[in-house]
């Protein structure tokens, strides 16, 4: 089967894409459609040197069919954009409350040792851009790239929204000390990151809303990702906590790092919120 993009002219962006979710894509088919990928889900343009080296970080647990859909669309999309990139799927071990933000920090910390990445794109596994002109790149300020999602009628549901897909240069991500590690369960970690960006004197950039149109796979809330109701309180204190809670307080144990054909899988034990980088721990430690 031919890929979703025409490959004959690499300078030509395909514009709007026809994204249809189908859940029976086999990994073998996706592999055969992306013959130029290097092990671990890496690719770089053949005829030029890319200005940015991009690590794509995906937080993950029990979303195999979503991941296959993401890989099916996004590998051709990124190669069409002449990206020098690698894909990192950061899988949290079972039986603990999900912590999307901490997984992002782990993905950054592992990827930075793997290659000289300059740009980090943190994305949910269930959002697919609908236009090839939506360049997956970093900019002078952190970028919020899920600003035109079908679920929200292609509008911003509120001004400070920073979920779904964000892009940071290495310097920008270090400046905000990464994500907070203390957001266990669903919600708030994205808004908290927005507050970090503002606190460090940066602005949030967003792509044009026509070009940024994206489709979200509809799903129910996952078991193990329940909301704890603590987010609101934590977001308010973002500026006080940001220098102590983030990349510089990250504690984790790598279970395995596996190089698949389509991605690098990092399986990690990030604890359960009871160590020093947990919610209660950090609040008590720093009296916040
Ligand atoms: C919104 C945000 C998302 C995040 C979340 C709150 C947008 C478009 N999306 O998405 O970025 O801020 O709210 O936490 O603004 N995941 C797993 N397994 C799980 C649970 C989560 O793989 O059991 C991963 C997966 O990549 C998923 C992401 O975490 O896409 C976010 O979780 P969600 O899809 O349940 O959150 P959602 O859709 O409410
Ligand atoms: Mn989702």
Automatic annotation (TrEMBL):
<dbReference type="Pfam" id="PF13733">
    <property type="entry name" value="Glyco_transf_7N"/>
</dbReference>
<keyword id="KW-0812">Transmembrane</keyword>
<dbReference type="GO" id="GO:0016757">
    <property type="term" value="F:glycosyltransferase activity"/>
</dbReference>
<feature type="domain" description="Galactosyltransferase N-terminal">
    <location>
        <begin position="12"/>
        <end position="139"/>
    </location>
</feature>
<keyword id="KW-0735">Signal-anchor</keyword>
<dbReference type="InterPro" id="IPR029044">
    <property type="entry name" value="Nucleotide-diphossugar_trans"/>
</dbReference>
<dbReference type="InterPro" id="IPR027995">
    <property type="entry name" value="Galactosyl_T_N"/>
</dbReference>
<keyword id="KW-0808">Transferase</keyword>
<dbReference type="InterPro" id="IPR027791">
    <property type="entry name" value="Galactosyl_T_C"/>
</dbReference>
<comment type="pathway">
    <text>Protein modification; protein glycosylation.</text>
</comment>
<keyword id="KW-1133">Transmembrane helix</keyword>
<protein>
    <submittedName>
        <fullName>Beta-1,4-galactosyltransferase 1 isoform X4</fullName>
    </submittedName>
</protein>
<dbReference type="Pfam" id="PF02709">
    <property type="entry name" value="Glyco_transf_7C"/>
</dbReference>
<keyword id="KW-0464">Manganese</keyword>
<dbReference type="InterPro" id="IPR003859">
    <property type="entry name" value="Galactosyl_T"/>
</dbReference>
<comment type="similarity">
    <text>Belongs to the glycosyltransferase 7 family.</text>
</comment>
<dbReference type="GO" id="GO:0005975">
    <property type="term" value="P:carbohydrate metabolic process"/>
</dbReference>
<keyword id="KW-0328">Glycosyltransferase</keyword>
<keyword id="KW-0325">Glycoprotein</keyword>
<feature type="domain" description="Galactosyltransferase C-terminal">
    <location>
        <begin position="143"/>
        <end position="220"/>
    </location>
</feature>
<keyword id="KW-0472">Membrane</keyword>
<dbReference type="GO" id="GO:0000139">
    <property type="term" value="C:Golgi membrane"/>
</dbReference>
């Amino acid at each position: 089967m031919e890929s979703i993009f025409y490959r004959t002219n690499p300078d030509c962006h395909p514009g709007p894409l026809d994204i249809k979710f189908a859940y029976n894509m086999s990994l073998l088919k996706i592999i055969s459609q992306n013959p130029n990928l290097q092990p671990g889900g890496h690719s770089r343009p053949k005829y030029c040197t890319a200005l940015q080296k991009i690590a794509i970080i995906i937080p993950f647990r029990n979303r195999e069919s979503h991941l296959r859909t993401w890989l099916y669309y996004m590998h051709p999309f990124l190669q069409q954009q002449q990206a020098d990139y690698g894909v990192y799927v950061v899988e949290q071990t079972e039986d603990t409350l999900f912590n999307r933000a901490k997984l992002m920090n782990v993905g950054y910390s592992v990827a930075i040792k793997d290659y000289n990445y300059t740009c980090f794109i943190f994305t949910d596994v269930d959002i697919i851009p609908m236009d090839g002109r939506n360049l997956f790149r970093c900019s002078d300020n952190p970028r919020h790239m899920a600003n035109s999602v079908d679920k929200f009628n292609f509008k911003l549901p509120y001004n400070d929204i920073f979920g779904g897909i964000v892009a940071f240069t290495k310097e920008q991500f270090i400046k905000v000390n990464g994500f907070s590690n203390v957001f266990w369960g669903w919600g708030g970690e994205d808004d908290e990151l927005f507050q970090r960006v503002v606190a460090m004197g940066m602005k949030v950039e967003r792509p044009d809303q026509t070009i940024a149109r994206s489709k979200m796979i509809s799903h129910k809330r996952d078991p193990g990702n329940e909301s704890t109701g603590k987010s609101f309180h934590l977001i308010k204190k973002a500026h006080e906590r940001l220098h102590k809670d983030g990349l510089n307080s990250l504690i984790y144990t790598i279970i395995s790092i596996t190089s698949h054909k389509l991605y690098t899988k990092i399986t990690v034990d990030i604890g359960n919120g009871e160590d020093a980088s947990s919610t209660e721990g950090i609040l008590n430690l720093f009296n916040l």
